[in-house]
Amino acid sequence: MNFRTELTVPGAPWCLEVGDRVLTLGSCFAQSIGQRFLSNKFQADVNPFGTVYHPLAIHQLLDYAILQEYPAPHTYLNHEGSTYNFDFHSSLSATIQENLEHQIHDRISAVHVAVKNCRVLLITYGTAWLYERTDTGEPVANCHRMPGAMFSKRLASAEEITASFRKTFERLLRINPNIKIVLTLSPVRHIKDTLQLNSVSKAVVRLACHQLSQVLGQVAYFPAYEILLDDLRDYRFYKDDLIHPTEKAEDYIWNKFSETYFSAPTKEFIKEWKTIQQALAHRPFHPESIAHQQFLAKALQQLEELRSIVDVDREIQELKLRYRHQPSSC
Questions:
Q1: pLDDT tens sequence across 9-40
Q2: Residue 330: what pLDDT?
Q3: What is the largest CA-CA distance in the chain?
Q4: 313-322 vs 264-281: helix crossing angle, rounded to 10
């Protein structure tokens, strides 16, 4: 008997190659998936603006990068001896506003280059609940632990999200007309909104993703949310907080993503790269033994063969430090 409903994702009409550049933006799920791109030797820029959950806030950050514009002075704030910006995650902060402005300007310039040159942009939305400043009416990406009276909370509509995306998308095509965009919905539940209102929020964002993927040919939706909630569907795949997916669950979602978007040569590379990673991680009891040195020699040969595809200089140097040429037997 089959006790689960496995979600099958149709293959995409285009494929990712290991040499392609990828940019991820959005929630903490964009961070975890982005790290898997990096660990598999993709050229990946992983959540360079930090964790951001709301679609409108993500689009604002993309607009900054595309247009190479900088946040207005009134978006900066001082709190408990540090300076933050309402449009950015708190990981971008400083004790002096001028230093934070330099950080943000440098980050925007770097992401402009990434957006202009990436093959695929992966955006992970987290919630439709939006916080707006009561003094300006502007949405914020992060409240930075400021008093709740400074903000009003409301649910953005699917129409509002899609309209915002379309404006950003049009700007994006001007600097990168061939870009592919994959939208995902974070499987992380925002239980502070209550489970009921979290469901409402996810439904709004999911509808927006569906509508965008249906009308824009360069935009696709990948069902990370459905894979965890409907395919895995078990608290075994959640961390102790019962909110975030475990590493095993993220690996499963990553494998589904690989099946959907990676070319056959890329899948073969990742398979080979996994064996090399195991060789790099292996620490035997007797590192000088002939068997282990032969094992290292084979791994070095594999790395040399991959040198024309990806940058493996660091791994080669690491193995060479552990490799000792064995004298031939008499």
A1: 988 999 999 989 999 999 988 999 999 999 99
A2: 39
A3: 85
A4: 30
The answer, yes or no, to whether residue 328 has pLDDT greater than 60, is no
On the CB side of 258, CA atoms within 13 Å amount to 21
CB 89 within 8 A of CB 25: no
Please choose, from the candidates 109, 82, 80, the residue with its C-alpha nearest in 3D space to the C-alpha of residue 97: 82
Place of tokens 């993309």: 62
Question: 152-179 burial by CB neighbour count: b if 16+ within 10 A, else e?
Answer: eeeebebebbbebbeebbebbeeebeeb
Alpha helix segments (H runs only) across 16-117: 28-39, 55-67, 97-117
Q: What percent of the chain has pLDDT above 70? A: 98
Q: Residue 126 in 3-state DSSP?
A: coil
- The per-residue pLDDT for range 80-128, each reduced to its tens digit, is 999 999 999 999 999 999 999 999 999 999 999 999 999 999 999 999 9
Q: Find where tokens 């002075």 sit.
A: 73
Nearest to 65 by CA among 15, 29, 118: 118
Q: What is the pTM of this model?
A: 0.90
Nearest to 29 by CA among 239, 173, 220: 239
Strand order in the sheet with 43-51: 43-51, 21-26, 120-125, 180-185, 219-222
Query: What helix, strand, coil percent values describe the chain, rounded to 5?
Result: 50, 15, 35
The dihedrals phi and psi of 68, each to the nearest 5 degrees, come to 55, 45
Q: Is 183 helix (H, G, I), strand (E, B) or coil?
A: strand
Answer whether 181's CB lies under 8 Å from 218's CB.
yes
| Residue pair 66/171 in contact by the 8 Å Cβ criterion | yes
